[in-house]
Amino acid sequence: MKFTGYLLFAFAVNILVSFSAMAEQNTENADAAIKMKLEALLGMEVETISDSPISGLREVFTSRGLFYVSNDGTYFVQARVFNLDEGMRNETDAALAGKRKDGIVEFASSSIEFKAEDEKYVVSVYTDITCGYCRKFHEEIEDLNDMGITVRYLAFPRSGFNTPGFDNMVSVWCAEDPMQALTDAKAGEPISVAQCDNKVGEQYRFGQQVGVQGTPYIILDDGTLLPGYKPAAELLRILQNAG
């Protein structure tokens, strides 16, 4: 009887494993179909497809941001998802925060970094050399460093690709001394033309994907996005409370 029971148990496990494998394969096939459809019809590049907080919808991260698509690929949804049972938590922004965390790690080496000697916090700041509030923020860079805040600047040329503003940002990032070039440019000094392999376009494109809509926009190390200028003292308080 014990042996028979073992056989029945093993048979049930095999069935469950088979069903699980079939379901996983079906999901992969459905995701592949969604990817093909979105890229063909909407011209957007699909980077990842994953579970969403809502049953029946897949979460799709694309070159144009985060969207939701029905499991059968029929409906395309642009929306913010809030969790009523968790204090109206913004599930869409929570998903984007994860993407931002990955992005700031990826772009850390191609940022223009003003490092604090006694580093306690690191923030990534999307900036544009023509932005008034970006210039105001940069005027406080020594105060920020003294507070233990390392600032990593990422490029967000508001004029877009193939513009003089974009080219100027490239020149700053490709300068022999990018830190000084950025400081000079924000002070209104002439920009010396320079070219190199750079990540300006990739940084700009990624910012658009994860919700950056202007400058300055600050990303904390947990992926939280802070729009707009924040004085040094206020930013320090935000970082202290976040910790």
3D architecture notes:
It is a single chain. This protein has 243 residues and is α+β, with helices and mostly antiparallel strands. It is built from 8 helices and 11 strands. The strands form 3 sheets. A 5-stranded mixed beta sheet has the order 7-9-8-10-11, sandwiched between helices. It has a 4-stranded antiparallel beta sheet with strand order 1-2-3-4, with helices on one face.
| DSSP strand content | 15-25%
Residue windows where pLDDT falls under 50 for at least 5 positions? 15-24
| CATH topology-level fold name of the largest domain | Glutaredoxin
CATH architecture of the largest domain: 3-Layer(aba) Sandwich
Q: Specify Rg, calculated over alpha carbons.
A: 23 Å
CATH class of the largest domain: Alpha Beta
Number of helices: 8
Structural class: alpha+beta
Order of helices and strands: HEEEEEEHEEHHEHHHEEH
| Average pLDDT rating | 90
Q: State the distance separating the first and last CA atoms.
A: 59 Å
The shape, in one word, is globular
Count of extended strands: 11
* Spatial strand order of the main sheet: 7-9-8-10-11
Give the % helix: 40-55%
Tally of separate domains: 2
CATH superfamily of the largest domain: Glutaredoxin
